[in-house]
């Protein structure tokens, strides 16, 4: 039994982390704090998930988001994709396991993975619009967001969405406001089967190990933890029955990392680009200094007049 | 509930939600706990994770419960009895039963009297013209001592045990597969796993819900399951039980309170008109023990009845007037909801009051219901939200195509407070009564149900006082001496349910044990002379001298068995596992260390729970653990307590794609509740070859949450689930529109084509099943849909009268989307 | 024929650009500069301050694409006006082969060129291509634009396509800026050029020195208002 | 509460090391007061908390309801948030998608705000007063009862029943409401009384 996190208090309490615990800030150079807070993580045990969507409504409720009533398109996934208001979403996959002959209904809660190396933050051009705290939470700061959508391209998991209403980017905050007062995220608290648990990252890894042992005992030899090294690990992790095939779970990235395209764009690209521009400008200046202006001589003018005169 | 009672003595979930953590094996069948009771289902995933328990799911669809199961077996809707009877046969023929338990704690040893018979699907005593059984031959052989005769060797051919072996022999794995469509290997795996618990070392729990009850033979589904649990010795033990997962937050409490046609609170009965006197009523129900030294708790029926009458009529109830017995209304027939809507449809009912009830959506055959509502003079809806019923007269295009001008019904919608705007107690599925506190002010002009009903009652009574009228006397006799008659408080009402001493109660020695005016601590204190009151004996103790125990919030669990004995109050007498005496062997020792719960310590019964037993009766007295039953034991064979037979029989649903493969002469349950008028509304397999079953979705609660925005967001629209094979056969596109129709009505929805539904081979034929979620309608914020019960048949279970929502016939075709 | 006194001496003036061409050019030029400034503000954190010129990053985010649209429309105008004169000729190769002389300003060693020399043609064609590239990739970065295009053609761009669009957009922008710098520098370095786009005229000497073939053609043409000899 | 204790025990079991890493104080190196411009303030501060039971299924989960004075409606206490009660032994703080969205039930677009009346043959509901509604309903019910109440059946047995009015009782009301409902309905002599237990 995963121990319940005690109920919240309504007394005034101060946030236990904030600005000075930032270790990364988009489009800015900052000095990270000397001491890092204990890293937190949310662990999603897909093998315990019943796909009830309590996480979805709890998220909407706590974050006071209003999503549109959609339609059914032949699947249980509703809404059909993450949106600026739906920060988490159950994705359902019907998988006929060729080894066991059993049908498996794989249900994965999609949402921000809170990467240790966040691609969104890397891509973000607006200073302070995306921050990463030393406990691992990657948060969007609405006031600083300009709505360019670069974070979407930067994200290896295709998570952030731009609001059509206010043109700001949104995604799961890991309920930073709740975590700040010692609570778990709203989705975690609601999860009926405690498929979602929350604690320090070490605790979550220990918890996952226990779950994986149980799954192995039930014939899932490849059960494992999804904490992808390509992004230096995540602060939202999955326990998967088929950890060798994450793509089975509605296309969970097999080896996520910040896309090389994004690396090229926001890494070497931006320096190379500036350098090229700078060099060209400098070349012009130097050329001008060395060569001086290319002036029209009076001879030229006379020749021209002659030409014109000759004609007229 | 009408099957657990006849088997065990009480009709309620045997164990508790938190006890499920102690199980080794879970069978989810006739329900979909993950979908309908997600937060209770956590105890299943907990048992899996912490105890290594296994989960099996048997369901027509691969459900959300199946998504986390270790084993899944498909089944054709309406064939659960065949499947479970197959398990019974497996256990008996392979001798995989818990022998000692069966011998001592069930009626396996009891001899059935001569004359009882079972032939080609019919029990002795069937009257075809009335479609009912004369149950007089379904009785034990009674010995000279007045007790039932037993054969403890279980060898006597007329012993229940031997009759059982004979009765179930036909349900071989081949037969089960032929009837249910379950592949034999999948069926046998279920049997094998169940058999692994028939030993007192391991326990299995069975979790079911409306998937078993909503059949014309629903009660017998549950009976079959109860028998399996008895054969395995899984009743009364931690992690065992037959757990009825009930629907509404307080449906257990409301069933206890008995707002049902023939009930009096606490499972007492409303008198019938052939019981003209109090004695004639009590005499039939004060059961004498059928075996020496048995508790036969219903011997106390009279005390509970009189205490009820004292609460109902107050000081006006006196020994001289039989405590007001004459004033009680007397039944001519039972007015269950099927009959109710039949009468409404016939125009025989003038006024309908719906309190938190949306019958247009909820009752079978919505078109029949709608036509009936239009014949009412007055319809009152007391509900926090607008219901489809309250707006039945409004035109909603093809979803409710009516002409308001032609409907003369007067309709009121009265706004009532929501759950968060009032205080009071609720009883959960596992009988635990807990208090809730008002959290917010009433929304707009809404008022509590209590204020509304008190206002109505006071107005009507005042009119009778001033103007007189028919039946004024019984009406004015009702006790209404609340501090504020306009608003009786929840506190005083719960006290009234609990009961108090009206005079000083004295023991045999004349010592005062309870002072006049003091609340009763236990129903053991109730008297039949009018010296106590108490509207509902089973709740006595919840508000005793120690105060309102439903408010207790101590979640300590010293035993680690999930007992939580100081959280709220669990009826009866704060017992958390019913029949828990059965967790020990006849000598009073636990069956095993692993399953240790209640045991005899040499002086008394002890353990983490309250013994469901007189705590001082020693094992030597051989008093049975099923104290409500006059036998003291549970019933594998239920005598005449059920309308359609003492043993379960496989009956096909009333609309079935095949002839009953087991008993070809049977056409549905011969004793089912059916009105002759409705017979023409049944379709046959030629016209309607596809089986349909209805169910709820986890994202919605019945017909309420289609008006709840967030729930509409996560599941916005009605759909029809079907297999890839059926979709291909009919040319239906995934996500495309389809029409589904039965003999009674038609609905339109989106097709969810899925691998989770597969065609089954039934008696050599391919049978398709479609799944129809029930949560949509024409009022709310979710997308509009036709009421699903426009399709369902108006036939009810023989015992509970529950309609057959789970198995009927339809046809399906692809269509162009509706215009509306 | 008319006379014109520009105060710098009485040189012959030759009309190089009509009024509408100049307006067209400056629309493109201004939008290019605005795009450059706003684009660079999102390109590198050290340049984010540029967004302040537009009222902040949010404005940049929505304004930049619309300026882009203006530029594209303007550029189409320029393209239609000038593409015929920018078609490559054999002399362009000679000119290119003698790029050393170009850089030294030794125009006398260069072949006579028409309205545009090979360098200018390079600017014209490369910017034409880059504008197309920037427009197409820009759509991928512009939510309403993308939604419109996806709706129009009924497809859904993959996230990798969008990433690639971002990368290409940035790369193309860098190239465009680089070429733009060459263009601006050339206009400054080659004195007498800017008036072509401000007042529409160049001196005859400028034409003689840099675009002699063009000048010959202009002179040989119907003179009305095109060539204005000195008094 | 013991849940807190067992949580600490878990932390140790799970090898998290020092007790300081428990979520309660979530290992934040600098746990002292720190006001942040970034992390949103916790929105339950200074709301009023009450413990209630979920209105939906029969798991009857414990819920915490947080209310605050309404701005729109003259300071009436209005629900602002609902979450599970972690102390409740059955649900342990969890809620299903319905329970977690219960606030939208309270504020549902289809919530009835005031008594509504539909006259025969008309096509709309009109608001009415409580007094009008209750008086009219009481009058119509008495008329029906006077017309159809049966004191004695054909055999002369006292039966005191009224079978032309039906009452469908909700199964989500409290036990106390259920009892009042029973008393009123049965007291009037009704036999047509049902709840959702059967369906």
Would you write up a description of this structure?
The complex is a heterotetramer of chains A (312), B (820), C (231) and D (199). By secondary structure, chain A is of the alpha+beta class. Chain A has eight helices and eleven strands. Chain A has two domains: 19-258, 2-Layer Sandwich (Alpha-Beta Plaits), CATH 3.30.70.20; 264-311, no CATH class. Helix content of chain A is 29%, strand content 17%. The longest helix of chain A has 32 residues, at 260-291. Chain A is elongated and about 100 Å long. The mean pLDDT of chain A is 94. Among the domains of chain B are: 4-105 and 171-247, 3-Layer(aba) Sandwich (Dimethylsulfoxide Reductase, domain 2); 337-477, Rossmann fold (3-Layer(aba) Sandwich); 673-814, Beta Barrel (Barwin-like endoglucanases). Chain B is built from 22 helices and 33 strands. Chain B has a six-stranded mixed beta sheet with strand order 26-28-27-33-25-31. In chain B, helix 5 (80-93) crosses helix 9, helix 5 (80-93) packs parallel to helix 11 (218-232) and helix 15 packs across helix 17 (366-373). The longest helix of chain B has 19 residues, at 449-467. The two termini of chain B are 42 Å apart. In chain C, strands 2-1-3 form a three-stranded antiparallel beta sheet. Chain C has 231 residues and is mainly alpha-helical. Chain C has two domains: 1-16 and 202-231, no CATH class; 19-201, Fumarate Reductase Cytochrome B subunit. Chains A and C meet through helix 3, helix 7 and helix 8 of A and helix 1, helix 2, helix 7, helix 9 and helix 10 of C.
């Amino acid at each position: 039994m995963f121990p319940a996190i005690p109920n919240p208090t309504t007394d005034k309490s101060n946030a236990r982390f904030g600005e000075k615990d930032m270790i990364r800030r988009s489009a800015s150079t900052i000095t990270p704090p000397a001491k890092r807070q204990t890293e937190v993580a949310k662990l999603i045990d897909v093998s315990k998930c019943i796909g009830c969507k309590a996480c979805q409504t709890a998220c909407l409720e706590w974050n006071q988001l209003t999503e549109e009533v959609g339609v059914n398109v032949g699947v249980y996934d509703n809404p059909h994709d993450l949106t600026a208001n739906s920060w988490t979403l159950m994705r359902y996959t019907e998988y006929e396991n060729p080894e066991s002959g059993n049908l498996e209904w794989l249900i994965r809660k999609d949402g921000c993975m809170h990467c240790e190396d966040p691609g969104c933050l890397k891509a973000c051009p607006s200073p302070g619009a995306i921050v990463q705290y030393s406990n691992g939470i990657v948060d969007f700061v609405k006031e600083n967001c300009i709505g360019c959508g670069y974070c979407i391209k930067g994200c290896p998991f295709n998570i952030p969405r731009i609001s059509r209403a206010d043109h700001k980017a949104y995604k799961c905050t890991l309920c930073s406001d709740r975590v700040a007062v010692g609570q778990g995220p709203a989705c975690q608290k609601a999860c009926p089967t405690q498929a979602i648990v929350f604690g320090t990252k070490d605790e979550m890894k220990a918890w996952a190990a226990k779950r994986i042992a149980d799954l192995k005992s039930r014939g899932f030899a490849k059960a494992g933890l999804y904490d992808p090294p390509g992004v230096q690990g995540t602060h939202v992790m999955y326990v998967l029955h088929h950890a060798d095939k994450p793509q089975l779970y509605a296309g969970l990235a097999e080896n996520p990392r910040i896309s090389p395209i994004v690396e090229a764009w926001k890494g070497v690209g931006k320096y190379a680009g500036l350098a090229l521009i700078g060099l060209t400008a400098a070349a012009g200046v130097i050329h001008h200094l060395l060569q001086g202006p290319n002036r029209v001589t009076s001879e030229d003018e006379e020749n021209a007049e002659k030409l014109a005169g000759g004609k007229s | 509930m009408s099957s657990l009672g006849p088997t065990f003595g009480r009709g309620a979930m045997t164990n508790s939600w938190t006890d499920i953590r102690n199980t080794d094996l879970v069978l989810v069948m006739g329900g979909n706990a993950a979908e309908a009771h997600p937060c209770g289902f956590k105890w299943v995933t907990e048992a899996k994770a912490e105890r290594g328990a296994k989960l099996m799911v048997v369901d027509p669809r691969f459900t959300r419960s199946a998504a986390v199961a270790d084993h899944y077996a498909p089944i054709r809707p309406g064939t659960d009895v065949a499947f479970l009877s197959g398990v019974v046969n497996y256990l008996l023929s392979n001798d995989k039963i818990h022998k000692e338990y069966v011998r001592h704690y069930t009626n396996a040893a009891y001899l059935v009297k001569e004359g009882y018979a079972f032939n080609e699907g019919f029990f002795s005593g069937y009257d075809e013209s009335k479609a009912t059984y004369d149950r007089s031959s379904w009785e034990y052989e009674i010995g000279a001592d007045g007790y039932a005769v037993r054969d403890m060797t279980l060898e006597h051919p007329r012993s229940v045990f031997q009759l059982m072996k004979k009765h179930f022999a036909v349900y071989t794995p081949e037969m089960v597969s032929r009837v249910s469509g379950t592949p034999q290997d999948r069926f046998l795996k279920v049997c094998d796993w169940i058999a692994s618990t028939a030993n007192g070392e391991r326990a299995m729990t069975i979790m079911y819900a409306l998937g078993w009850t909503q059949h014309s033979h629903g009660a017998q589904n549950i009976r079959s399951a109860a028998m399996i649990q008895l054969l395995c010795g899984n009743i009364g033990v931690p992690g065992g039980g037959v757990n009825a997962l009930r629907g509404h937050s307080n449906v257990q409490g409301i069933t206890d309170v008995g707002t049902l046609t023939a009930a009096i609170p606490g499972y007492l009965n409303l008198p019938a008109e052939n019981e003209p006197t109090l004695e004639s009523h009590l005499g039939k129900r004060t059961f004498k023990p059928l075996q020496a030294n048995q508790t036969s708790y219903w011997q106390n029926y009279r005390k509970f009845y009189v205490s009820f009458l004292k609460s109902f009529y107050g000081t006006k109830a006196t020994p001289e007037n039989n405590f007001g017995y004459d004033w009680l209304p007397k039944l001519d027939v039972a007015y269950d909801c099927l009959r109710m809507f039949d009468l409404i449809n016939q125009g025989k009912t003038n006024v309908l009051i719906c309190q938190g009830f949306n019958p247009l959506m909820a009752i079978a055959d919505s078109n029949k219901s709608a036509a009936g509502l239009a014949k009412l003079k007055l319809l009152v809806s007391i509900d926090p939200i607008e219901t489809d019923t309250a707006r039945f007269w409004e035109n909603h295009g093809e979803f409710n195509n009516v002409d308001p001008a032609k409907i003369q019904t007067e309709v009121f919608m009265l706004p009532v407070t929501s759950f968060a705007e009032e205080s009071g107690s609720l009883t959960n599925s596992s009988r635990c009564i807990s208090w809730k506190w008002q959290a917010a002010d009433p929304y707009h002009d809404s008022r509590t149900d209590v204020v509304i009903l008190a206002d109505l009652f006071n107005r009507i009574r005042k009119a009778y006082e001033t103007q007189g009228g028919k039946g004024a006397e019984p009406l004015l006799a009702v006790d209404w001496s609340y501090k504020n008659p306009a608003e009786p408080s929840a506190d005083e009402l719960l006290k009234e349910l609990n009961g108090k001493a009206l005079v000083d109660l004295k023991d045999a020695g004349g010592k005062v044990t309870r002072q006049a005016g003091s609340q009763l601590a236990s129903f053991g204190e109730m008297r039949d002379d009018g010296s106590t009151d108490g509207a509902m004996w089973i709740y006595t103790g919840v508000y005793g001298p120690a105060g309102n125990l439903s408010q207790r919030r101590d979640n300590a669990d010293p035993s680690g068995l999930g007992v939580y004995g100081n959280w709220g109050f669990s009826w009866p007498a704060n017992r958390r596992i019913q029949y828990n005496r059965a967790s020990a062997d006849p000598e009073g020792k636990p069956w095993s260390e692993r399953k240790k719960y209640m045991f005899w310590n040499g002086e008394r019964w002890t353990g983490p729970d309250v013994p469901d037993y007189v705590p001082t009766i020693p094992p030597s007295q051989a008093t049975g653990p099923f104290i409500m039953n006059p036998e003291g034991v549970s019933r594998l064979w239920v005598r005449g307590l059920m309308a359609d037979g003492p043993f379960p029989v496989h009956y096909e649903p009333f609309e079935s794609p095949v002839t009953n493969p087991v008993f070809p002469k049977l056409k549905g349950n011969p004793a089912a509740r059916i009105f002759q008028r409705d017979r023409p509304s049944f379709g046959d397999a030629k016209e309607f070859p596809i089986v349909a079953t209805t169910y709820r979705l986890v994202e919605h609660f019945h017909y309420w949450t289609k008006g709840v925005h967030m729930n509409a967001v996560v599941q916005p629209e009605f759909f029809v689930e079907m297999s890839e094979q059926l979709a291909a056969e009919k040319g239906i596109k995934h996500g495309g529109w389809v029409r589904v129709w039965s003999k009674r009505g038609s609905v339109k929805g989106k097709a969810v084509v899925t691998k989770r539904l597969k065609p089954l081979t039934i008696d050599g034929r391919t049978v398709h099943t479609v799944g129809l979620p029930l949560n949509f309608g024409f009022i709310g914020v979710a997308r509009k849909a036709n009421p699903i019960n426009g399709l369902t048949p108006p036939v009810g279970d023989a015992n509970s009268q529950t309609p057959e929502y789970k198995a009927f016939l339809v046809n399906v075709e692809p269509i162009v989307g509706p215009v509306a | 024929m008319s006379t014109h006194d520009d105060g710098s001496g009485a040189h012959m003036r030759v009309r190089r650009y009509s009024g509408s061409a100049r307006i067209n050019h400056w629309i493109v030029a201004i939008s290019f500069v605005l795009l450059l400034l706003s684009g660079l503000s999102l390109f590198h954190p050290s340049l984010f301050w540029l967004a302040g010129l537009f009222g902040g990053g949010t404005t940049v985010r929505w304004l930049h694409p619309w300026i882009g649209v203006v530029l594209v429309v303007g550029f189409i105008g320029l393209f239609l006006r000038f593409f015929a004169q920018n078609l490559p000729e054999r002399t362009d190769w000679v000119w290119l082969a003698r790029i050393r002389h170009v850089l030294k300003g030794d125009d006398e060693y260069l072949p006579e060129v028409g309205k545009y020399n090979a360098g200018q043609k390079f600017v014209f064609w490369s910017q034409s291509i880059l504008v197309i590239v920037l427009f197409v990739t820009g759509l991928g970065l512009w939510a309403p634009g993308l939604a419109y295009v996806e709706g129009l053609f009924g497809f859904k761009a993959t996230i990798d396509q969008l990433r690639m669009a971002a990368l290409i957009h940035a790369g193309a922008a860098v190239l465009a800026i680089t070429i733009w710098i060459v263009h601006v520098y050339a206009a400054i370095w080659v004195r007498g050029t800017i008036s072509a786009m401000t007042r529409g005229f160049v001196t005859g000497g400028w034409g003689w020195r840099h675009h002699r073939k063009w000048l010959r053609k202009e002179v040989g043409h119907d003179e009305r208002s095109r060539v204005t000899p000195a008094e | 509460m013991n849940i807190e204790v067992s949580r600490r025990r878990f932390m140790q079991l799970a090898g998290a090391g020092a007790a300081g890493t428990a979520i309660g104080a979530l290992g934040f190196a600098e746990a002292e007061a720190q006001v942040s411009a970034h992390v949103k303030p916790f929105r339950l501060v200074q709301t009023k908390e009450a413990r209630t039971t979920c209105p939906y299924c029969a798991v009857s989960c414990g819920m915490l309801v947080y209310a605050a004075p309404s701005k729109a409606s003259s300071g009436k206490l209005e629900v602002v948030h609902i979450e599970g009660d972690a102390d409740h032994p059955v649900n342990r703080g969890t809620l299903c998608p319905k329970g977690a969205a219960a606030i939208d039930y309270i504020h549902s677009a289809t919530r009835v705000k005031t008594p509504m009346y539909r006259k025969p043959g008309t096509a709309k509901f009109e608001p009415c007063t409580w007094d009008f509604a209750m008086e009219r309903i009481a009058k119509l019910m008495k008329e029906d009862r006077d017309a159809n109440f049966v004191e004695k059946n054909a055999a002369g047995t006292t039966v005191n029943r009224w079978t032309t009015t039906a009452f469908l009782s909700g199964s989500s009301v409290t036990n106390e409401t259920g009892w009042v409902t029973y008393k009123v309905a049965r007291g009037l002599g009704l036999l047509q009384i049902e709840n959702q237990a059967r369906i």
